[in-house]
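Hi there,

I know you've been waiting on this one. I reran it after we fixed the sequence typo, so this is the corrected version. Both the input and the resulting structure follow.
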Amino acid sequence: MHLSSMLRPSVAKLALGLALALVVVPPGRCDVVGSIFLTGHDPDFHASQGGNSAGAVNLIDDAMAFVTNPSFNPFTGLGKFLYVEGSTPPPPGNVEGDAALAAAGFLEGVNYDEADASTLLAALGGLGTKYDAIVIASDFGANLTEAELSILDSNSSLIIGFLNKGGGLFAMAESGTTNPTTGQFGFLPFIVSSAQKNQSEVGNTLTPFGSSLGLSTSDINGNASHNVFTSTGGLNVVDTDSSDQILSLAGRGHVSSGGITPEPGTMILVGTGLLTLAARRRRKTT
């Protein structure tokens, strides 16, 4: 037998061992990084209102699994996230997002607390001590209003500080269409998005990174989306629309006003997919 043939199994085992080492070593315990998922979809509407409710539920589940993955987020033991949404009556056609969160297995008072403009500033003080993540409702579909968004934007440094301690952030569509808002995604000042890019979800494409999060093409089609992103700020593209415009972004790294710097890049890119899938549905109610 040729010597090279004898060596191949050992080389293969070594390669597999190195790959597994990169996956199982908990990067969040070595280098604290924030986890961010931003989307132009509004699954907090469609998970309870139909269209493709199963896809919307999966989008919520996988985004939450990503931003609360215990291998990266040191606050997951706290057991709750902060959900930001207005308490005034939603505009016609919009709904409160709680029913969609419930459809995805998250219950108010058990898995999350909700804050509106009257309680939000105080609630932000609980990031990292009471809450492992902040989840921001859509302004088209659900009921994020200018009152909440302006508080979030003016407290960008506090939110970024929480992310750089390992916290998570999941924000849904911000278009300013039915709930008139300005300063879309301004709590992350390096993100640039369109306003009022309302379109049916037909022909959307999932990237390999998006697939690594557990999403499928069927999850990102069949409902509607309301903004696209015109910059990435160092985040990874999750999915695009039929015109190849960015619908969702996600990533982990050190966050500043100028963008996100992935660190350590190799561990995050190799470990993200399997670790996220392992963490999926970790907080389902029983």
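Quick highlight: Residues 27-279 form one domain.

Best,
R. S.
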